[in-house]
Specification:
This protein has four helices and no strands. The protein has helices at about 10-30, 40-45, 55-80, 85-100. The two termini are about 25 Å apart.
Length: about 110
């Protein structure tokens, strides 16, 4: 449910976060990028295409853009719903997606996209 100051409800935000993160997961799997391995997200954001299987340069560029979108969506989510509610939504989406994709994106060593 939405408060008068909210543009989107928590449910709408959760769907948006899941849609963005699912697209990221699909692109990472297609490009053979193990995003959840230590340091890989930073390498993608730094435009280091060596983490991507050869021949998937277009997918890598889209993956990189989607990662930036991921962080922008999370910033807006926290701004609108507050950091505690935002963290809850992000955690639910992460758990749901990890259940679906297993270890195809690597392992959750020390960190993952927050």
């Amino acid at each position: 449910m939405r408060t008068p100051k909210q543009r989107h409800s928590a449910e709408e935000w959760e769907k948006t976060v899941e849609d963005v993160d699912l697209e990221i997961a699909q692109l990472a799997i297609m490009c053979h990028v193990r995003l959840l391995d230590p340091g890989v997200i930073e390498r993608v954001l730094d435009n280091d295409a060596r983490v991507c299987r050869e021949g998937h340069e277009g997918g890598f560029e889209k993956l990189r853009g989607m990662l930036y979108l991921h962080y922008e969506v999370q910033a807006r989510l926290a701004e609108e719903l507050g950091p505690v509610d935002a963290a809850g939504i992000v955690q639910r989406v992460r758990q749901h997606l990890l259940t679906r994709i297993g270890t195809q994106l690597g392992t959750l060593g020390a960190t993952a996209p927050q």
